[in-house]
Amino acid sequence: xxxxxxxxxxxxxxxxxxxxxxxxxxxxxxxxxxxxxxxxxxxxxxxxxxxxxxxxxxxxxxxxxxxxxxxxxxxxxxxxxxxxxxxxxxxxxxxxxxxxxxxxxxxxxxxxxxxxx
Amino acid sequence: xxxxxxxxxxxxxxxxxxxxxxxxxxxxxxxxxxxxxxxxxxxxxxxxxxxxxxxxxxxxxxxxxxxxxxxxxxxxxxxxxxxxxxxxxxxxxxxxxxxxxxxxxxxxxxx
Lengths: 117, 111
What we know:
Chain A is built from no helices and eleven strands. By secondary structure, chain A is mainly beta. Chain B is mainly β.
């Protein structure tokens, strides 16, 4: 089965530093997403991206966050100035955008565990 | 009120048991419904979509009651490998395919 690939698997950073989390979505997918999961809490939506622009974003996705698709394969999440509360597992996901009828499927990457010290 | 609410468990059951999980959602505009499975510190993986008519996939049966805004998952003949957290997920297809996750129900199947 095709995979969404995320790097690095673990990222440790100091508070106030910038981090970039990287993702390679499935090649023929058109919709890309970032979700996060703080330890012991639920998975939360951050942002969706389609046609080189953000289509939806949550309240969590404030000015400290940005996303980019710098080339035809990578999809990145940048946190400009990390805070302690940004520590979480960040999941990238992609889909082919065919939604409705119950055939929808989001493919998740294995995540990047971000630890802000 | 939480958007998607689940009993966190854990549900501790012996192998071979039948176990049922429930979920309620608050947004009546929700259009698509799913059960995902998440193993410890791993990514969520789609278990099955949930249809209004109810659907079955092997040992797993899912039901949706739109009037009560209630979703269920039944697992028959539990296996050790079924031990995981089961996430109830809904989406409003008008909201850019954004998934809203419940907090999950933890299942532990014992020998």
